[in-house]
Model the fold of this input.
Amino acid sequence: MSDDVTKILLSESEMPTSWYNIVPDLPSPPPPVLHPGTMQPVGPDDLAPLFPMAIIEQEVTTERHVTIPPEVLEVYRLWRPSPLYRAHRLEKALGTPAKIYYKYEGVSPAGSHKPNTAVPQAYYNASAGIRRLTTETGAGQWGTALSFAAAQFGLECEIWQVRASYDQKPYRKLMIETFGGTIHPSPSELTAAGRAVLAADPDSPGSLGIAISEAVEVAAQHPDTNYALGSVLNHVLLHQTVIGEEALLQLAKVGAVPDVIVGCTGGGSNFAGLAFPFLREKLAGRMAPVIRAVEPASCPSLTKGVYAYDFGDTAGMTPLMKMHTLGHDFIPDPIHAGGLRYHGMAPLISHVYELGLIEAVAKSQRECFEAGVTFARTEGIIPAPEPTHALAACVEEALRCKETGEPKVILTALCGHGHLDLPAYGKFLSGEMTDHALSGEAVEAALTRLPAVPA
Amino acid sequence: MSDDVTKILLSESEMPTSWYNIVPDLPSPPPPVLHPGTMQPVGPDDLAPLFPMAIIEQEVTTERHVTIPPEVLEVYRLWRPSPLYRAHRLEKALGTPAKIYYKYEGVSPAGSHKPNTAVPQAYYNASAGIRRLTTETGAGQWGTALSFAAAQFGLECEIWQVRASYDQKPYRKLMIETFGGTIHPSPSELTAAGRAVLAADPDSPGSLGIAISEAVEVAAQHPDTNYALGSVLNHVLLHQTVIGEEALLQLAKVGAVPDVIVGCTGGGSNFAGLAFPFLREKLAGRMAPVIRAVEPASCPSLTKGVYAYDFGDTAGMTPLMKMHTLGHDFIPDPIHAGGLRYHGMAPLISHVYELGLIEAVAKSQRECFEAGVTFARTEGIIPAPEPTHALAACVEEALRCKETGEPKVILTALCGHGHLDLPAYGKFLSGEMTDHALSGEAVEAALTRLPAVPA
Done:
């Protein structure tokens, strides 16, 4: 394939048939997940009320490759393999000698990378005889993906969306309903957790922590109902590695080897999905890319958090995971990249960061939207607010190359389009968007409330 | 390529390098466009204040193939060739032996087929030394496409959007601005035409006719400014033929020959873009597809209009075109498929319809949205309201095949996604959507006001 092509496409027969698990390739295994009562590693029985056994096995597997079931591949084919683009027009606008490639996941039904894991999660649950899935959603990408995936396997899907987002983003609710899901604002009267919050504050705007509690409560109470999570956990990162596996094949087709890989990180699944297959190649000495996570300046778990055991949810109901955290009850400022507003980082990403295998930077909101607008006007795709963080880092690296004259190969993940996020662009273009300074005091206070874990 | 593949892709090197002009292949040429003052055929000088000479030449060319400039191909490559999908999951849900293929134009920057003509129009204007383009837009797809296209060639783009749509669809305005365009609600204080309307009615909701008047007025007054139109005219249909040329190549790759081609028709550019290259093959005896235009029951120019000379705009300022029309001042009911609410049909489509080369059907709104929801839940793409008309006809044909057992090959154009049209889906899902009965009296009255043209 010529190296001046714009879209590097794979045929369906070239689609990866297994997901990649990085754990066996790491110099040391990640620390275990602990039960908050016993402080002992959690076992399959602890997770069985919420997840099917196939998912639990994937969460702890030490196999390097996990076969993708044919039923999942059949749904993946609706949008996978996703295109890898060479950003010729962005490069020209920046005047950089760098070669910029972006892997575009916005072609999926939900408009982001989330269906890569929603589809197998729905499949494994349907195979286990489950009839309904519950989940929480913030901005709504994950809820959309699970709603679509559930419909493919005849499952019902019930979603609790943080009320503030539910009221602000009516298009997300409509997309979820168009795919067949049921959506409730959270807190709701449908659960004990929701009723307790409403009793104390009938006008509660909700939080991701409350929405998780409601979804988990319903799943735990009904044997035919399970819960699904859209990021952070090992099996979610595993499913997302189709992104990086495809990108490896695509770059090889044009003879390009990445010097720098940048991806945005919230819970971490998009970043890990792109980066882990390349990290495998780096660990094996077959390439040597710098791999850089880009997080929002207002929620910088890797660059400003501590590496400690903490809860996955605000309310402190989940098992304890060792991760970079700002404290489980730290509430990030309301930036438009809702998908990056998470207090912790995926344990597996935290572990590779501690091992020094990846680096991290934080970007402020307006710099990101500026990169997003430049990208839209040159490449024709309006990015979701989350990947504008990766694009800002991409532009920074490309301009550095302009100074030094280095023709570096930069690879990034454009994990979703911003069609339902246009009001954020409106705020940026009208000059109404503000940057959010991180409150060091708020982080310090939240870190004093980390759970005590025996050494 | 295997025939059970889901996405039939072309490489960039397979992208068509010329547009197809159907005129020389027709048994008779279409009737000329007339000057409303002299009733004589319009000449290049009549059009020169609004369009560059390259566009005027394309409007009247009798060449079979028109070369696509390299500068246009370079922008096309951002999303072209567009994918052709086999709708395996829709077929399965319908239980039909038919094979359904859809050509998807929603991958473009604007999310529809409109950039296929916006890009060359911007290119030819920039090449002619023009500095700014003006246009009108209703629902906003055309304004978005021209805004993006203008940015690719360093042109300014100024858009008058019907005020009712401007107020109802804030996301479209934001998308246009993100791509760099300037947008005004119409009627505006910026033009004599707008000021006159506002003087009579300060709360005027506007109309496409008024918006056209404003855009044309500004273009006519400034030598460095031209006007661009998004449908109806010959050169627009010409540019859209890349859709059908690609689909021909794609079907050939899987050895499929269409028995039935269905496309939605408003002004007609999407339908012609898909159908004309196949009509060429039909006229040459190389295939024999039924080619069916699908129009909204509330605006059925082909099935309920007359074939007569009429104005292209409501106010009666344009040249006279012979076309199927409901009368230039017929105002269709406010269905959600705003792109299909046009009183006339492209003269070239009207001509081939009169020649008996294509057929037409009309569909009501709820049947269309039902097909749209079925499509979204099976194929993972939420269609714009316009192509749900084609999908409804597609489903109808597929269910007919289910009865007869015929494994027909059905081809349709999915000309855009519905991400910015989700409120319409909300109305459908909540049962609030109504069908609109066509008022025969309103059409009869409008037809009494057709311009008098000497035989």
